[in-house]
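Working notes for the structural subgroup meeting. M.R. asked for a predicted model of this chain before we commit to crystallization trials. I am recording the input and output together here so anyone reviewing the notebook later can reproduce the run.

Input as submitted:
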Amino acid sequence: MKALVYQGPGRRSWQEVPEPGVQTPTDAVVRVDAVTICGTDLHILKGDVPAVEPGRILGHEAVGTVTEVGAGAALKPGDRVLVSCVSACGRCRYCRTGSYGQCLGGGGWILGHHIDGTQAEFVRVPFADTSTHFVPEGIGDEAVLMLADILPTSYEVGVLNGRVAPGDTVVVVGAGPIGLAAITTARLYSPSRVIAVDLAEARLEAATRFGADVVIGADGDPAGKVAELTGGLGADVAIEAVGVPETFELCARLVRPGGHVANVGVHGRPVTLHLEELWARDLTFTTGLVDTYSTPTLLSMLGAGLLDGGRFVTHHFALHDMEKAYEVFSHPQETGALKVVLTRG
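Returned structure, recorded in C-alpha cell form:
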C-alpha cells in the first residue's frame, strides 16, 4: 500500500509500505476512505515533536471501513467508523475518568506519533472498540472527519477548559482550523462577543463567516481594541490557537483579572510566563491534549444539524495526491486552505 512517511525534519514521501495487520486481539484494520492533514503534522515536519521517528507514517484522523478485527474486538468487517486522534485502552486510571489523552495502557495520542498513522490506504487501530466511533447513517465522510481532532480539541481544550460562559467576551488568537473550531464551539455558550486575531486577511474573513463578531488583523492593536470593547477590563477568556511564544504572551495580556487563558496550540519553543506582571491578576492558565470524551456529544450535534463539519473543508484531493495536498495545506496564505480532505478514488 501507499502511505505518507516522515523522513526527518523537513522531509516526507508518499511511498510503498507494508500493509498493516492485526497484532493484538483488540486491534482492527481500517481501510481509509477519507483522511485529512493536521497542523500538528506540520509541527512534526518542522522537528517540533522529536518523539516522532523517521520512518513513521503520519496522520491521526480518518473515516474508514473496518476490514479485519482481532478476536477480542466487537467491531465487524464492513463497519463504517471515525478513527479518533486519541486511542484509549479503556481500563487505566485515566481512561476510567475520561482522560483518554493521558492513557497509561498504551493509548493517548499514538497514531502518527508513536505508531503508524492514518495518512495511508489502511491503518491498524489499537483498542479499536474504545478508539473508534460508529458513523451515523446519512452523514458524509468529510463532515464526520472534522470530529476526529479539530472540533473536540477546540471544544475541550479551548472552550471547556477556558470555561466560556454566557455573556463572556472571548478572544481567539489564531484563525486557522483550530481557531475557527473554537469560534464555532464557543458560540454554543452564548458569549456576548467573540473576537478573532490573526495576521492573514483570508483567515479573518473566514473567522467572520464562522461567527466572530470582531476581527483584528496585522495592522490592529489587539490589546487596545479588546480594552475598548470591554470598558478596560479585558476578555473573560483568551484561547491560544497558534503555538508560538508571541501569541501565548498576547493572550496573557488580553484577559481581565480573574480571566482564563486556554492554550490549544502545539508549542515547539519555550514560552515566557511573565509572572512579574501577572502574579496578582488571579489568572488561570490551562494546557491540554484533547481527550475526545466529547466526540459522542459532537456526533449527536452533527446528526441533529447543530454543527456543520463540512464547512471547514476548502480543498479536496484523491488519496494518492497526498504530496500536493501537503503543499496546499502548508501555504494557507497563498492557497486559502483551512482543512483539506483526501478520499479514496
